[in-house]
Design a protein that fits this description.
430 residues; alpha+beta; TATA-Binding Protein; 3 domains; 9-stranded antiparallel beta sheet; 8-stranded mixed beta sheet; 10 helices
Amino acid sequence: MKERVKSWMLALLVLGSLVESYYLIYRLPGTDSAVLSENLYVKTDNMGPEEKVENLLYPDKMIIHMGDGKHTLFYPNSTFYNLILNRLKGRGFESFQRRSVQDFNWNQIRKENPGIELSFGAGIPVTLLQRIMQLSPDSLFAGESIDKIWIYNIKNDSKAHAIFFSTRGDIVYEAAKVDLTVQDIQQHVDFGKNLISYTTVNGDYYVPDSKISLVEVEMPSGMYTIEQMQSNLFFDAGSTRYIREKNGSEIYTDSKRSLQVDQEQNWMSYSDPAALPAGESTSAKDALEAVDFVNQHGGWNGTYRLAATEEGRLERKVSFQQYYGSYPYGSYPIMSKPQLQYGVINLELQQGTVSSYDRSLIYIDENKSTKKVVELSGGEELLNQLTQIGKASSVKDLTPAYVPVEKGEKLQLLPVWRVTLSDGSVLTLN
């Protein structure tokens, strides 16, 4: 009996030793992540949902020309903006003819002809524009980027006119076939009746004749952790090294990639200089790659718009602008500022591959927000302010926007006028 017990105990000891050896060899801390390949990388701790590129492509404003020198503006997510844009998305534009911008008297068209002007800011590649509009471009037009579309009527002409403006500035494309009637355009223009009238200054920007209403909001905020960012950006987050810079920034690196975190600005900068080039690169392909990268490395913590695809000497910069607002007041851009970088996502790509990725670590809880309606200045008061500003550098754009302000554990979005000057600088009023 004793011998049998000893045999069982010995067998258990041997089995336990084998199990322990297995864990010592294969389950030491870090060995799991060390053997993971990039294909087995699991995305965790998302900052927000994924997004389709189509939902990031829309005009930053819609200018309604009503004739007789009268104008009004619609902004994203406002009632008539949504209605008009959804209708235009289903209409076809074909047979594009290339013309010089000097062939048209834009001041006369702006003043006398009822029409709709869609502004796309820094521009959008035609191949992306096709994702939200029914276009049939030739090879020449397909290679352009468009910063404005102007659809209008001409007196005693039964045909609707549609002009697409190239970002190059000297060329426009006129659609010979437009799936819109004169009555369609007039109906869209009539939506602007009885709304706030705007006065244009040299056709560069528009000033409301009276005050406009926006929503001021305050909501709880927090900050995504460094651990979340590491798990989103590194294939093996456990292998990163920590470096503290003299300026207080924190750097995490796996010897190939680096994540720099500025705790004061709540801002992260990710760099992957060793990323393998994907090959052929165009502004449209790079924009699509940038959207995919954000989808896979954090997601979208709010509403964004593709703001720019700027080509540099060796790289292309793709920027996404965050918007805030709701029906019926509209949505407006959130301005990043030196004191608080928030509201933008910036990426750089080299030959179609993302090499850097910058964004804020702040998140907000819109479900617990408190709101109140406030007014921005208009009329003579605003015109006088802009005239004074224009003496130093001419004003090129005026739009409502939000300035983010940290208030303890909350974030405030304060409505302002964003003024863009001809030298590229930006300032705020109100």
